[in-house]
Design a protein that fits this description.
The protein is built from 13 helices and 20 strands. With about 375 residues, the chain is α/β, with parallel strands linked by helices. The two termini are about 25 Å apart.
Length: about 375
Amino acid sequence: MKMQLVSALLILPLVVLLLCGPCGATEYPLTINDSAGRNVTLKMPVERIIVLSTDAAEAVELMGAEDMIVGVTDTVQKYNWYFPNLKNKALVGKWSAPDYEVIGQIAKGNEDTIKPNILVLGYPSGKMGGKSYGVDAVAEGLAPFKDIAVAGFSFYKGESIDKEITQLGIILGKEDKALEYIAWKNSKKEAIAGAVEGKSIPRVYFESTQPKGLGELKTNGASADIDKSIRLAGGLNIFGSSSDETITTSWETVISKNPDIILQAKTDDVLGWGAFPSSNTLAAQQVRDEIMSRTGGSAVAAIKNKNVWIVFRKMLYGPGSVVGTTYMAKLLHPEVDLDVAGVYEEYLGLLGVKYPEGRTFVFPELASAS
């Protein structure tokens, strides 16, 4: 608690700097600068929110403002175990292709004109199939409706998340919730750094998806937050010398770099996996067995020492990524005193989600994480 209070006091000046208007009250119109570098003007306090990503949905839940959400995209509905109170909200299309007509109708409601108390939260940038889903494209798609404010925040990048959460807290009148989350996150990062300080630094290969072929392996370089997580967890990303965020490589290249630890992220449609031999852990075992049996793998330290782990993807990214980093630190350094399950339970508590007792988030399961 003392550490959280100190962290909160360190963040307070950021809140003061970002407030538009005199101290003690937020005045309207309120203008904020989003993560795409756009000035977004809110004519009145926000009372309705449409989230176009799971990261935005998490951020709003962290602010204790989920009741303001009136529309969500497909991925938010898919992860209903993370967002149990949002599964019945209006669907506004795919995360990468929102339905602007539906959003416009929600904004209008039963009125003749749109009341400007609505905000759409999207990504600052991005493309899927050559088509942009970034905030500029969303703003252009909603321009004909007028009075729908659109802001671009990632809510997952380490260098910007504190500022973004602080801005969201100001927008929603939830500055205290923003401080609470930032203090909690930073205290957990400090705990990880302290736990691994002075430890040996294992070489880590992180496989971001299950491969289509051994010549098309996906991993991350230094500009990715996964690289930062590996370093904070006391490891060295074997592809960290590359400045690229996403890298396509080959198994032969991985062998040549001889990692001590191999991690692969696995997507699932439930919160965690049941105890072995559940269907989820059997599937994770198949993925691990594939890695362990790859041609030439017997020469790789991670495979020789059976340091190959399948990791629950959702905890590695977004506002809760410090949970995944805590698990990484425990996998890289099993001897450290970190309560991985406790950290995840705390984060889910901030979201208002009950921790799923008896489930695991890595395979093979950590004996101390159950």
